[in-house]
Amino acid sequence: MAELSNPQLIEEMRWQLREIEARKAENVKALAGLAASGGVTEVTSPDEAVTVTVGPGGVIGEVRLTDKAMSVGAGALGAVITATIHRALTGDPAPRPKRPAPAEVEHDEPADTVFDL
């Protein structure tokens, strides 16, 4: 293959950028159409740091991070992104916050009261 001159390389890069922009526009249009038809799933992490958009066939359309995402370490952020993608792909609802454990109060006498709920 013959080497390209600088002007040829520049023109080739411009062509590639135009192609990338055209494909990006097509993808945005396709995702908008899928969202309008209900074919896109959008899931946000419980801490609202990560939002993932998934289209038909499990195609990840977008991963958005908020400023909250930047406040955690790389390992934790990776885990949140992975979990959010997994939830989007499987349709699992957001994990519910754990109920705090009841405060333990020391009693001198055993509790013998039964409550009907």
Which regions have little confidence, pLDDT < 50, spanning 5+ residues? none
Proportion of residues in extended strands: 5-15%
User: What's the gyration radius in Å?
Assistant: 25 Å
Q: Tell me the distance between the termini.
A: 82 Å
Q: Could you describe the largest sheet, including whether it forms a barrel?
A: 3 strands, antiparallel
Overall morphology: elongated
**Average predicted confidence as pLDDT:** 78
Q: How many structural domains does the protein architecture include?
A: 2
Give the strand order of the largest sheet, numbering strands 1, 2, ... along the chain: 1-2-3
Number of helices: 2
> How many DSSP E strands?
3
Counting helices, strands and paired strands, the structural category is: alpha+beta
The succession of helices and strands, N to C, reads: HEEEH
| Portion of residues within helices | 40-55%
Would you give an account of this structure?
This protein is α+β, with helices and mostly antiparallel strands and 117 residues long. The protein folds into two domains: 1-39; 40-94, no CATH class. The chain has helices spanning 6-37, 74-90, and strands at residues 41-44, 50-54, 60-65. Strands 1-2-3 form a three-stranded antiparallel β-sheet, sandwiched between helices. It is elongated, with a radius of gyration of 25 Å.
